[in-house]
What we know:
B: alpha/beta, Rossmann fold, binds S-adenosylmethionine
Amino acid sequence: MGRFNVNNQYKAIVIGGSAGSFQGITKILSNLPDNFQLPIIMCLHRLKHVRNGFVEALSIKSIMEVTEPYDKQSVKRGKVYLAPANYHLSVELGQYFSLSTEEMVNNSRPSIDITLETCAYAYRQRLIGIILSGANKDGAMGMKRIKDRGGLTIAQDPAECMIDTMPKAAMALTEIDYTLKIEEIIQFLIELHKQYK
Amino acid sequence: MHMQDVEISDLRRLTKVILDEYDYDFTNYAMSSFRRRIQRILELYKFGNVNMLIKRLKEDREFFDEFISEVTVNVTEMFRDPSFWRELRDHIIPNILLNHNTISIWHAGCSSGEEVFSMAILLREMKMLDKAKIIATDIDTSILDRARRGAYPIKNMDLNEKNYIRFQGSGKLSDYYKEENGKAMLDPSLVENVSWRQHDLVKGIVFNKFDLILCRNVMIYFNQNLQNEVLKKLHESLFKYGYLVIGSKESLIWCEIANKFIVVNNEEKIYKKIKD
Ligand SMILES: C[S@@+](CC[C@H](N)C(=O)[O-])C[C@H]1O[C@@H](n2cnc3c(N)ncnc32)[C@H](O)[C@@H]1O
């Protein structure tokens, strides 16, 4: 038995991050076990009008290729997806993506709340939500939705965060199952991966 | 946002009423964004639930215009995706003009008109504006009124300017507007030959043929079935070898009629009709 009480009920992982999360994200992506099964859907606050560069920067270190999904593209196992600049990223009930240019939410487009909430709706208890370092409250409501629908919630340990507003906001709003440092999040994902063999 | 209160069954009842009473069909709009729009309307008008919205729609026919205006997403920019506009200026439009003296353009889902003004500026800089026949349509009549006025909040012009600079236009964006009462008033002569019309891509008819259609960031609000239906209409509205442009994060590859188009520029989502 490992340290975490995990099983193979999960179908997807969704990650939200903002200021100070880039390093953590790259560390996670570069330490994923080979053949990691679950899709990873990421919504990270980013420069609005820089369409290119970011996904490449993440891909360089990542074990799995990182792509920005097209509208209505299906979510596939073993892929890492990143919300494109200036679009909100939703997951629909048939487990495919939808993009939208609606008004900003929490001053953000993409908004982490939107991605997390729609994932919670589409995956219910089969979802793991991870919230990382960030300077605003975007994502807190989304984490609550994940928890309310029976998913598993993880926040980056505020002590380790460059800016802890985001994980703290989530912790204030809902129950967080695990508060972990990036290293421990990696351990968690490795243990999770073992459940799928 | 509190989305838990709007259920799919609510949305089904709502879209049915709209279809029966008003002959607009939102059944196949993308669920996630449509749901947020309805949630937003409930909050905006302080309807406690979807039934109250349905009741209002049944009783108050004037409210329907407001509903359309709120349910659609109108966020837009001038010269959105500047590299696309460069491609249009440097390759696509010259290509069309190789074989024609004039060019007919349809902006399907033009919203408040920024895309249309961008096109007009581009064409004027190419000295081709006189040769263009532009039709700009949207489902939302009040956004079309705003488009016709061509008066945009000054605070939006920052972003528009930045896009224009990246587009590498031959002048300055401020050559094309003057400031009045906190608004940027676009030069009306840019759009004097534009025909603005209300048109619904879902239920509307194919009304003309074009050399170039822009339908960007409109079909992302539709599910895949509806995208297929609308794409058939767009295909029918193009001359053979005409161009279709969709949003930078949309794709034609899954659609039923993909084989009737070729990809001209994958990055900028420019397609060419090669089969009737
Ligand atoms: C996000 S705006 C796109 C504006 C512009 N093309 C751009 O890319 O910036 C989407 C527009 O599509 C319009 N729209 C939505 N459903 C439509 C329909 N069924 N028929 C025509 N227009 C529609 C909306 O009213 C809205 O103005």
